[in-house]
Specification:
This protein has 254 residues and is an alpha+beta fold. The chain is built from four helices and 15 strands. It has a single domain, classed as Creatine Amidinohydrolase (Alpha-Beta Complex), CATH 3.90.230.10. The strands form five sheets. Strands 1, 2, 4 and 5 form a four-stranded antiparallel β-sheet that branches. The protein has a three-stranded antiparallel β-sheet with strand order 3-12-11, with no helix packed on it. Strands 6-10-13 form a three-stranded antiparallel β-sheet, with helices on one face. It binds 2-amino-4-trifluoromethylsulfanyl-butyric acid and cobalt (II) ion (2 copies). One cobalt (II) ion (CO) binds next to strand 4 and strand 5.
Amino acid sequence: MIHLKTDEEIELMRKSAKLAAEVLIMIEPYVKPGVTTNRLDEICHDFIVSNGAVPSPLNYRGFPKSICSSINEEICHGIPSDRKLRNGDVVNLDITTYLNGFHGDTSRMFHVGSARKKMTKLVETCKEALQSAIKLVKPGAHLGDIGATIQNIAEQRGFSVVREFCGHGIGRSFHEDPQVLHVGTFGEGIELKKGMVFTIEPMINEGKPDLEILSDKWTAVTKDGLASAQFEHTLAVVDNGCEVLTRLNGQTVF
Ligand code: MF3
Ligand code: CO
Ligand code: CO
């Protein structure tokens, strides 16, 4: 069942989502060669808590940390550890905050130190795929439109789209209906309605789409060991389009 949000609920969600977006801005200067993902986790945790919120991942279905950090061939749900980031790595930090009874969910890629050309192309393609999907979100559009545009952009550039994980409705629960697939066909799937709030979070692989889950039961990695990129926004369907709740006023995070 899809919970349509009232304007009052969307106002509360805006606050939680804005905080999640602020975390990604706050953490950027720390994402440098030599830093451990545990340290990034700790800094984000303290920032979220000092703003009166709770990091949603912590203890979610047994997840042990406050953020997800996914490096290179890790697709998503990487667990922060004592591993140090190295020059040329690409890392996704996925931040979810719980504030005023609502979750806000956003993630982005960072190049650690100097960016490698192939990685820049992968990361930019993933970002563009998300942006092109966001442009299509409005009442009367279909969920399939989102998947189709993401799939087209990724595959045109010779990349592939992960099928096993998708975007999701979000609100008082971290993960709600509907499932937002990142592949699909224009015009198919449920029709979007004002008040729907969901994430779009494409995972785009440099090589094949297949994945494996590591023995930690969380970290999803590409089977072929090639890199993967992901960006995520939380957005609300409004009268004439959509509002990206995890974008800061006047500041384009990505
Ligand atoms: N933030 C992830 C998402 O975009 C979910 C992380 S679940 C966790 O849906 F337990 F790994 F944190
Ligand atoms: Co999400
Ligand atoms: Co997320």
